[in-house]
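User: Hey, quick favor. My workstation is busy. Could you predict this chain's structure for me?
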Amino acid sequence: MKTIVLREPGHFELTEIPFDTSLKEGQALVRVICIGVCGTDLHAFRGRQPFFTYPRVLGHELAVEIIELKGDAYGLKVGDCCAVEPYMDCGECQACRRGMTNCCEKLQVLGVHADGGMVEYLKLPTGKLHPSNRLKKEQLALVETLAIGGHAVERADLGQDDYVLVVGAGPIGLSVIEFVKRSGATLVVADINASRLQFCEDKMGVEHTLSMTDTFTEDLRKLLDGNLPTVVFDATGHPESMMKGFDYCAHGGKLVFVGLFQGDVSFHDPTFHRKELMVMASRNATPQTFRTIINAIENGRMDTTSWITHRIDFDKVPETFASLLEPGSGVIKAVIEMPLSNKA
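Assistant: No problem, here it is.
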């Protein structure tokens, strides 16, 4: 089976590995048909991804087709195309017992803690497959990205009276933006990249965008009629940006860290207490979020078509992946396309 392995930072290798197609009860054999490139993949390629070891098979934003099923199929059938929920939880720990499988104590995320989907075939638990035969393969591959933002916004419990700032207009930031828009809250998007802000305006209908300049806080107050955001989402994974979020929040506000980095977050405790801030992390997503997103795309309430700016053939990943990191590449979202001739 063809497999792409990230041997070490900056070095992909296309190789062949043996693959046993026999299934256990409750498993499905699936053919990978499309792979979304996530910020996690880019960080791993750079050597900057937390909780990561090499070598590793990347790929957790996956669209797959079911080839074979064994045992409890959860209504699935051979030939179904599915989005993959790539969070392999234990089902037994305290978090799992409370329904918080997204932050399982023993969580193994495909492509991060365990080998992922840059392969021709996978064996997956049937409960981690979310079917839709109406979505295109690229749409299925982007469901997981949307789920990250969806879960973060669910955590924040937004209302129409909220002022929301999303810092970082990369793919994860875009997924947050998509769900903030659905809440009816007043939205401001900030980034250092002017082209990403323009994308938010032109393609996502964001009315208010701001560049991260030395006068950012003043500009933000002016835009919000003297107010500060009641909720700040940081989707940058950049330590300086994340720590500045404490200053951007209004008194009584919420700060949600969607991105993460290898290090410590520090803040000025008197400011934190004076504002009575609520600070929370957001990790992965729940099964219900996947189902909600698929339903929304199927019914035309959500559309990520314009996000995809780059497509890479599977066999060419080792030689072309680095180009996604080049300055001026214009990447919003890249997908890896599998050969249509794959057969189990």
